[in-house]
Design brief:
alpha/beta; TIM Barrel; ten-stranded mixed β-sheet; 10 helices; 34% helix; 18% strand
Length: 253
């Protein structure tokens, strides 16, 4: 496995919540499938339990995933481990995820809540995975907390602009300038926000671009044409198929 420092001149595939189109999101099954499909990286979400454990889960309230009502922050790890998170899968701790994936695939952790930076950095230090993890968040000030604790950790600015695709260039430039000013590694925008100007401006200033929610082949092809550094997708196999044919397809105008 190449770490994020050595993946150059390659469009990488990042499995969103693992391979979650064929296995329950953010579970051992989903992450194992992503590794089997040879994704370059997995994206996952982290939250903190009532007893201070960092766990892998997107939803702060677990009813969508388990059928039981409750908030991660109000439940202990032991309580959470009693729930079925899909196909019999149990919730993973961040450390369990690292033990499952270390040396096999890179990690892109989305931080959902504030106040966990020190615990997350301490865990990455414990396992020696600073070179193979990217920390992303919509909570941009929280990313700065990570940077204060460890200036070498790779950070990515998540942006959806409320899922609109009609953002002005001025807005987009501001997002990228925030990344430049704070020495972030990447910007991970909702994919319709990305165009050629976006990618060129980011690249000219040393910022990588990893759009997310990229599920259709036409969208993948368009983003490859723009020169993005990677795509975050639920469908790893589709992305691999599109990338394998990239020299032969007709670019979308």
């Amino acid at each position: 496995m190449k770490n994020l420092n050595t993946i150059n001149n390659k469009i990488i595939i990042i499995g969103h919540r693992g391979a979650n189109n064929i296995a329950p999101e953010n579970t051992i099954k989903a992450f194992k499938k992503a590794i089997e499909l040879q994704a370059d990286c997995i994206e996952f979400d982290i939250l903190e339990t009532k007893d201070g454990e960092i766990v892998v889960c997107h939803d702060e309230e677990i009813s969508r995933l388990t059928g039981h009502h409750g908030f991660i922050r109000e439940l202990t790890l032991e309580e959470l481990k009693t729930f079925d998170f899909g196909e019999g899968e149990k919730i993973l701790t961040f450390e369990e995820l690292i033990e499952l994936t270390k040396g096999k695939i890179n990690l892109n952790s989305e931080v959902i809540v504030k106040g966990i930076a020190k615990k997350v950095v301490d865990i990455t230090k414990k396992y020696g995975i600073i070179d193979s993890i990217l920390v992303s968040s919509f909570k941009h000030q929280e990313l700065l907390e990570f940077q204060k604790i460890n200036p070498t950790i790779k950070l990515a600015y998540l942006e959806n602009n409320n899922y609109k695709s009609s953002s002005t260039w001025k807005e987009k430039e501001q997002w990228i300038r925030f990344c430049i000013d704070h020495n972030f590694y990447a910007i991970n925008p909702f994919y319709p926000l990305v165009d050629q100007q976006f990618v060129d401006f980011a690249h000219n200033n040393g910022i990588k671009v990893f759009p997310y929610a990229v599920e259709s082949a036409p969208a993948m092809k368009k983003l490859i044409k723009y020169g993005v550094d990677g795509i975050i997708t639920d469908d790893i196999l589709k992305a691999k198929t599109v990338l394998s044919k990239r020299k032969g397809f007709n670019p979308i105008n």
